[in-house]
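User: Second chain of the day. Same drill as before.
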Amino acid sequence: MLVLAAAWQAFSAYLALPWMRDLARLTDWPVALLVVAGIALIPGSVNAFLVAGLALDRRPRFRSGAPSPPVTILIAAYNERDFVGETLDSIAQQTYAAAVEVLVIDDGSTDQMCDIVHDRIASGLRPPNQSLRLIVMPVNGGKARALNAGLAQAAHELVVTVDADSLLYAHALARLVINQQCSPIGTAATAGTVLVRNSRKNLLTKMQEWDYFLGIAVVKRVQSLLQGTLVAQGAFSVYRRQALLEVGGWQEVVGEDIVLTWALLERGYRIGYAENAFVFTNVPETYGAYYRQRKRWSRGLIEAFKRHPRIMFHWHLNTPFIFLNLMFPYLDAIYLLVFLPGVVAALFFHFYAIVGLTTLLVLPLSMACNFAMYQRQFVIFHRSGLKVRRNHAGAILFTLMYQLLLAPASVMGYLSEMARLRKSW
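Assistant: Same format as last time:
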């Protein structure tokens, strides 16, 4: 994988020499290298790396013959009256042989969410192996504090986190746990596959459907091939309780899931990925909500580096992804401050030093990468009885302009954490 990425890097650098020379005449060589690397060379190498990873990945299909272990499910919820009932119903519909303890932690909600949970408890419409309990926090203290309160009362060694607005697909819980149980020794957690539930709402959610389906899921898959998924997301992941206690549980930060994951990786644990354990979650439906969410995510990345800088010096197979994450602020800034003005200059002022015909050479590899990711994800869906929705408009917009929506939020998230601005859940 690294060899292919390096070969593509050398080839694309050779092709980009005229572009860099033209740009260097206007500025100087260091600036030209920074600009061309950020716009084309590094993104191209990442795409080549992902394509190679997908081509080499021969993931085993876990079929555990051992009895399923008991699990505790933690649902930290704040003002989720409209969704928590359906989330609990989707858990009740799971086919799982062992005991399932479901703990809903109400983090000081003000919308009568507790009444919904009490109704589900009173109804008794759950499998005999499932129990449901409500833990009420006196005041809103944030997601990490709520999860830690649930962890303190968890009865079982395997702890699953589920967001309060998410629906578990058929057999999701069993598949997630099987992947954890059958993974190599030292696997402290396994991330499930999060997909978009409300994708048909508008163009923004249609684009996010492709982001989750192609971008996030495939990156996690390749990271797990390299023995270390970098984020066991809170929306749907399973953890070993002892490992959680060892790192002190969830920290009270904006990106509590990535900070926790990096704490585990820093101690030498492995993080897996269950490609066939699906949960459908609601994504933001307005750009304001999307902006705030992605700002939190990018801020969480900086928190992870600040709290666990030694992870960069613990060399493992997934180290290339660690350094790629380190370059995200640079790549997003180049896109926002250089590439987009370059597009405007080329289209309206016929100035092609920043964005010209050479830039188009990035597109074939990007298209090949997206096609390879689509093919692999299509097979996974087919095996699980799912169909890929027809979402042509979302696919086109995702390819052409999704980064335009993402970059401003990401850059502001990086700056917010560096400036230590106020944090909130």
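The CA atoms of residues 250 and 260 lie 6 Å apart.

User: Great, on to the next one.
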